């Protein structure tokens, strides 16, 4: 598994026009599927008079979680070319929505594919790309007597953490960069009575949305539009 991934730094927009139709592209950095519903609802509310709101997203690292949606366009002409640009630029933790205002002229299958691909590409070109660390979320359980030594290690490694909760034992949730996880774990092994449980995502979230175990076929890692 890679120690880092590439995504967009913040919300970005793009635009593509073809034969009177306008394709407004919006990109959002995301980390979980639960963020998507509210984003789509907001766009539907603002652009309620548009004919289509097509999108694609990709989350996590291998195995990726993803989905494409054509929102009434002919199958494979909208969500898939949008997703193709995500792959072409090797991005993840990203949602791209393309809102179409119909211009009165049918574009045909190839025309739609090019339009949605070009709209997504224009958004990516207008965005700032950043590289971020892949992180492992884990929960530590430990005796209160180990608290000070544990916090010292956490500070040394610069690890994000929640506030410790102590009762009969103490618990602490951490977000550990994958690049330092093995070293951090080795240091934990030197402390007495500490258990580390990696927090996994809900397995249901890993179900593919395209009736396939692979990413959409026919998409190549090329940034050409």
Describe the structure.
The chain is 28% helix and 32% strand. The chain is elongated. The C terminus is likely disordered. Helix 2 crosses helix 3. With 225 residues, the chain is of the alpha+beta class. The chain contains five helices and twelve strands. It folds into two domains: 128 residues, Impact, N-terminal domain (Ribosomal Protein S5, domain 2, 2-Layer Sandwich), CATH 3.30.230.30; 70 residues, ACT domain (Alpha-Beta Plaits, 2-Layer Sandwich). Strand 4 and strand 5 form a beta hairpin. The strands form three sheets. The chain has a five-stranded antiparallel beta sheet, with helices on both faces. Strands 8, 9, 10, 11 and 12 form a five-stranded antiparallel beta sheet that branches.
Secondary structure elements and pairings:
Layout: E1 4-8, E2 12-18, E3 21-29, H1 36-46, E4 52-59, E5 65-69, H2 79-88, E6 94-101, H3 108-126, E7 129-133, E8 135-142, H4 147-157, E9 160-161, E10 165-166, E11 170-177, H5 178-188, E12 195-198
Helix pairs in contact: 2-3, 4-5
């Amino acid at each position: 598994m890679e120690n880092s991934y590439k995504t967009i730094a913040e919300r970005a927009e793009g635009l593509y026009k073809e034969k009177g139709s306008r394709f407004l592209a919006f990109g959002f950095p995301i980390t979980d599927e639960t963020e998507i519903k509210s984003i789509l609802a907001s766009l539907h509310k603002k652009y309620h008079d548009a004919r289509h709101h097509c999108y694609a997203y990709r989350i996590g690292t291998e195995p990726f979680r993803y989905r494409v949606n054509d929102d009434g366009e002919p199958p494979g002409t909208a969500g898939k070319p949008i997703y193709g640009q995500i792959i072409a630029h090797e991005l993840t933790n990203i949602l791209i929505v393309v809102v179409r205002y119909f211009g009165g002229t049918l574009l045909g299958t190839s025309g739609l594919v090019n339009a949605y691909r070009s709209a997504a590409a224009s958004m990516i070109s207008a965005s700032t790309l950043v590289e971020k660390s892949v992180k492992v979320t884990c929960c530590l359980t430990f005796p209160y007597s180990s608290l000070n030594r544990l916090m010292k290690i956490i500070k040394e490694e610069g690890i994000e953490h929640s506030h410790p909760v102590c009762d009969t034992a103490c618990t602490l949730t951490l977000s550990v960069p994958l690049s330092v996880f093995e070293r951090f774990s080795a240091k934990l092994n030197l402390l007495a009575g500490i258990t580390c449980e990696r927090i996994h995502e809900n397995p249901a979230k890993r179900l593919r949305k395209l009736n396939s175990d692979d990413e959409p076929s026919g998409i190549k890692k090329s940034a050409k539009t």
